[in-house]
Amino acid sequence: AFFLLVDKLRKQDRVAIVVYAGAAGLILPSTPGSDKEKILSAIDNLQAGGCTAGGAGIRLAYDVAATYFVKGGNNRVILATDGDFNVGVSSDADMVRLIEEKRQYGIFLSVLGFGEGNLKDSRMEKIADKGNGNYFYIDSILEARKVLVSEMGATLFTIAKDVKLQIEFNPARVESYRLIGYEDRLLAKEDFNDDKKDAGEMGAGRSVTAIYEIVPAGTNEETRSVDPLKYQKVELWHRSGNAELLTVKIRYKEPDDDTSRLLSLSVTDLNKSIYECSSDFRFCASVAELGMLLRESSFKGDGTFYQVIELAKNSKGADKEGYRAEFIRLAENCLSLATAMADQK
Asked: Is 60 exposed, middle or buried (0-12, 13-18, 19+ CB in 10 A)?
């Protein structure tokens, strides 16, 4: 996988390699990207085995990155692992504390997950979240090419850090709402304006989609779990003539800044059906629906794998890299498995 990345290195780039099997060690001192043969030779000599001193390896990697820190540059540790750290600092809490300590250097983190048997997926995601970074699971050479070549900018170049999203719905238009997913990324509402509160990072060219399920105001949906508000009646909002559906607020910091900037945008309802929306929106909806079906969410409603596949196929678009076609194949495999399991009952 890393051979693909080395091919994209420039002469002004520098690479060092740290290993941590049993004990941490530096096997390739900081080397210019133009010396590809030396870098590739070091990678080719790597072998998996032994105990995993992840904590010591991470410390050494950050120390090397700090030594060769480039002011205004892209300073990053890339951690390739299955997450099964079993020597030295190894617990989730200890690893999080270590990463939180090291991120203060202004060095970003990318975590690449490999393997199957002892894969600690949740640990690696948590480490990436706390280290101003991102996490990807590499299950094939195609995924490696996607992460390290096709979307290299989004993976390795952070253009905004501590990005936060907050949405306020107009009660005249929205009876209730629910964010689909992001359970492990939720913030308290007061954290939105707190610049000390860590949040997510955005890579160059990356986009993020947040999908909300809403119940329009004035419907007869049985969604209330609490009594209606006495002093904020929907009728009063209707009489105000406010056509806004919601207001989106975004806070973010420049990579080298500690003070956030605020963006705000009010949105009105265009009264479009899902089939009138963009292909990107419809495809995202199919992905969200598949996720709810796989998790057997109580909110999946009458969703089906057939519906997921149909919506995804109709919103596939140009699909230059074939990622959407891969998703459709995955959904079709899920349908086949679900059908086979149902037949066995």
From this structure: buried
- How many angstroms from the chain centroid is the CA of residue 244? 29
Q: Residue 221 has what pLDDT?
A: 61
Angle CA 330–314–268, to nearest 5: 110
> Tell me, what amino acid is at 9?
L
- Where does CATH 3.40.50.410 sit in the chain? 2-156
Q: Can you tell me the mean pLDDT for 159-165?
A: 94
Give the count of beta carbons closer than 10 Å to the beta carbon of residue 2: 19
Q: How many CA atoms lie within 13 A of 72 on its CB side?
A: 0
Q: Was domain 2-156 assigned CATH 3.30.450.20?
A: no
Residue range 201-219, pLDDT digits in tens: 999 988 889 999 999 987 7
Query: CA-to-CA distance for 185 and 200, rounded, in angstroms?
Result: 8
Q: Report the alpha-carbon distance of residue 127 to residue 81 in Å, rounded.
A: 12
